[in-house]
């Protein structure tokens, strides 16, 4: 039995443990492995959100930013429109006999969803950036990668962003038995609940790799509503599109990672995020909160 206590871990543990725990894992931790082509299991009441846009932060959890335009200017990003009001009814059907697998949200609106995986890089500047910009995003975290500093993610969560399940140790789940998959998925759900006080509702399999047992396992944990894949993945400077026309489509889910200079050829996470948001702005989209739609 492990008793989890909600208290920040001293930062000085970070460096040592990072080298130990993350070094080996990370080489293989990239999520940009096999990626799903297409979303299934999501049924839309077509049209999606219709409430008139209310300015502010989509989820209504984070306090409004006093000067949004100035914040975007400061980070060198064109001003993105605030997210539209969340739909009254979530367009992805959940709670059925089989957990849905989703890589795009059914919507007509020019919105995309940003997700950050694993949790390796813990750059304080990224926290500053998100505190300024209030872009909604979802974190899919792996225990083996974040346990050297659970505290890093709390201010990001406090901004209204959800912490979701990405397994205990980041295996390719297709190589594991049903019981092992249950342990990886349900175990991380319990761990995250203990650390962050909220039970994850979404699950992303490492590398986007899953099989029928994964769906059974995720369903069996209780509380997981959907398996979330992606349509685009963020590289250092560019977005990798599944669409050969290199365009976003309404409701696309974008995969990015908590990565820093050692994985980004010397570039920082905030530069990567800036590049991603610039592309989203260039194509006339804005970012909405995934949990408002699933
Ligand atoms: Zn991952």
Automatic annotation (TrEMBL):
Residues 1-27 form the signal peptide. InterPro entries: Glyco_hydro/deAcase_b/a-brl, NODB_dom, Polysacc_deacetylase_ArnD. Residues 110-294 form the NodB homology domain. This is Peptidoglycan/xylan/chitin deacetylase, PgdA/CDA1 family. Residues 31-65 are annotated as: Disordered. It holds the Pfam family Polysacc_deac_1. Keywords: Signal. It comes from Actinacidiphila rubida. PROSITE patterns: NODB, PROKAR_LIPOPROTEIN. GO terms for biological process: carbohydrate metabolic process. GO terms for molecular function: hydrolase activity, acting on carbon-nitrogen (but not peptide) bonds. The keyword Signal applies. Residues 31-55 have a biased composition (Low complexity).
